[in-house]
From TrEMBL:
PANTHER family: AUTOPHAGY-RELATED PROTEIN 22. PROSITE patterns: MFS (PS50850). This is MFS transporter, UMF1 family. The keyword DNA damage does not apply.
Length: 421
């Protein structure tokens, strides 16, 4: 069968980019950077305030890209342009990831400024990277290749993470993260990301596109409005995007805010790092399993299963502050990590491949611009909601509980999307 054929050079190169950019997610969004921001860049700032500021920064980064993504997607669908835009955002992300090594103690605003630009670069490059899936994989192989991208991204990002952790532990952690060693870790992330981007730049080429017009910007904007009308006319696409908006909001919020919440619960840096490493390793086989199960059942069924697992993880996370026994609390935190790891990659990979099969291939970047609008605006509302609720209540556990609403709404809308033919 076609799904059992070895990956082509283009497919391997596309997957390797996920290996490179996943290091940014693990170190800069999920693990090290949130701790560095709370303990070093936000020195002297109350815990609830710094957690809220971190949430607001992630929301701002998503807002910037959400505003730009549709027009950029429409422009990138001209033949030969998709890779150019990917490279531009890649350079933006790399530059400001390097820049984060310049942050001083207490410079929380400067730190967030650099982080927002670095995350905009990372997320912007992903718009065009995701759109390239139609150029490297057939429709029958999209679930499989998308899942492999996320799977190898998880396991591949562990290597630079271990290097960063090695640098940090070598420098000593008596009073928290050593600043100089942590900043060196940011440089490791940038170099890793760059190296694993090179195969995609060399071996992946745009197969589908629109011929360049005499007025490309004007025509791209006009085509953008036409796409809006086209999406509204296709009920399945619109329903899927609406469902995606809610459930991916919950997924992204947990990824972005989990470490900060763990610090609020009193867990040590060593435990948090160990848990995040565990998640990356466990997520590798489960992402592949989700891809295989989608072939046997349906992609929608597997997405609903993943959302259900996240609902359970959210409820357990909400209950943690009320548990006094340290052993039980720690055990439940590890249980949450397993739940997140079991569904994180599957939800993201199958969402990408499911959507890719619904859209016209020659307009993939434009349609993925809308896909990322829904994803990025979702990533605004989740951390913002958690930040606002945490500030209003004075405790981040209520912010965690608010995320449950996003999963429930996403699952309800996804049930309205028809099964795949």
């Amino acid at each position: 069968m076609d799904i059992q054929v070895k990956m082509t050079r283009a497919e391997r190169s596309w997957v390797l980019y996920d290996v490179g950019n996943s290091a940014f997610v693990l170190v800069m969004v999920t693990a090290i950077m949130p701790i560095f921001f709370k303990d070093y860049a936000s020195a002297g700032v109350p815990a609830a305030v710094s957690t809220a500021n971190w949430g607001f920064a992630n929301s701002i980064a998503s807002l910037v890209l959400a505003v730009m993504a549709p027009v950029l997607g429409a422009m990138a669908d001209y033949r030969g342009r998709k890779k150019t835009y990917l490279l531009a955002f890649l350079l933006l992300g790399l530059t400001f990831t390097f820049g984060l090594s310049l942050v001083g103690e207490g410079q929380w605003f400067f730190c967030l400024f650099l982080f927002v630009l670095a995350r905009v670069g990372w997320a912007g490059a992903n718009v065009f990277y995701d759109a390239f899936i139609v150029d490297v994989a057939s429709r029958e192989r999209m679930d499989l290749i998308s899942s492999r991208g996320y799977a190898w991204g998880y396991i591949g990002s562990v290597l630079p993470f271990l290097v960063v952790i090695g640098i940090i532990f070598t420098a000593g952690m008596a009073d928290g993260l050593p600043a100089t060693a942590t900043k060196a870790g940011f440089l490791v992330v940038a170099v890793w990301w760059l190296v694993f981007s090179l195969p995609l730049m060399k071996n992946v080429h745009q197969q589908y596109g629109i011929e360049l017009s005499e007025a490309p910007v004007r025509d791209a904007i006009l085509r953008l409005f036409a796409t809006v009308r086209e999406i509204r006319q296709h009920r399945q696409v619109f329903l899927f995007l609406a469902a995606y908006f809610f459930y991916i909001d919950g997924v992204d919020t947990i990824i972005a805010m989990s470490t900060a919440y763990g610090r609020d619960l009193g867990f040590g840096i060593t435990l948090l790092i160990a848990v995040l490493l565990f998640i990356q390793i466990v997520a590798f086989p489960f992402a592949l399993i989700f891809g295989r199960l989608a072939l046997r059942f349906s992609t929608r069924t597997m997405l609903l299963a993943g959302i259900g697992v996240y609902c359970l993880a959210t409820l357990v996370g909400f209950s943690l502050p009320s548990i006094d026994d340290v052993t039980i609390k720690t055990g439940l935190f590890w249980f949450i990590a397993f739940l997140v790891a079991s569904s994180m990659g599957g939800i993201q990979a199958l969402s990408r491949s499911y959507y890719a099969r619904l859209i016209p291939m020659e307009k993939s970047a434009e349609f993925f611009g809308f896909y990322n609008i829904f994803g990025k605006f979702a990533a605004i509302t989740g951390p913002f909601l958690m930040g606002v609720v945490s500030r209003m209540t004075g405790h981040s556990r209520w912010g965690v509980l608010s995320i449950l609403l996003l999963f429930v709404a996403g699952a309800a809308l996804l049930c309205l999307v028809g099964e795949e033919e």
